[in-house]
Amino acid sequence: LIPSFTVLTSQVLRNAVHVEEAEVEKCVRDVMKAKRIEQSNTGFKSILHMSLMQISGYKKLYREVENLRKVPYDSDNEEHEELLIELWDLLMPQEPLRGRVSKQWCDIGFQGDDPKTDFRGMGLLGLVNLVYLSRHHPSEARRILARSNHPRLGYSYAIVGINLTEMAYSLLKSGALKPHLYNVVLGLPRMEHFHQFYCYLVYEFDKFWFEENPESIMHFNQYREKFHEKIKRLLLDWNVVLTLQ
What we know:
The protein is an all-alpha fold and 245 residues long. It folds into 2 domains: 2-64, no CATH class; 75-236, no CATH class. Helix content is 62%, strand content 0%. It is elongated and about 65 Å long. The model is unreliable at 1-8 (pLDDT under 50). GO terms for molecular function: GTPase activator activity. Pfam families: ELMO_CED12.
């Protein structure tokens, strides 16, 4: 049986939301043909092209983030080690690291004397996020680190940072980040945009933590979930933009 025009049109539209970047141009032409829209309608064509690029880019970004998350931290990998040392140098520029394995790592919020064990859940993604924040917002990163050492409201800076990487990752995976990313970039969202959202989470969580004034760090999971729900509510607004200015 030959499919009807309506079935063909529906198939073209369904395929459109799964298009890869290289096929966007062809997909735009196919959709316009299926909907009987003149190819000379440049306004419709440009809007559709941008929308499909955003959809394609979101999926590509998720794959890139997922691939980085799957890379385990390897202390025998020179690039991994350089990133880790860079994190120390950015956060503690006045205090030299006395050894690769050192209790000093606890000063920036790792659990023990070798940070590699703390990256198990989020892999290299957790470290790359922490380094990005310190590279691009050094004063904010150091200020938040200093606040994390508060005598009563203190928390483990690096561990919480990795926890927020998991939050950013889960929001990306679920599709909840689409409104934010579609508003931030009129085209292909890139890894940089994911890192920028992470920076926003770190900044806002620190503010949230002190505003909530929890009794102790033992209540972290409770307040972490409360913060998570707050971010998810913000992302329900299709005009939302969550960036650290």
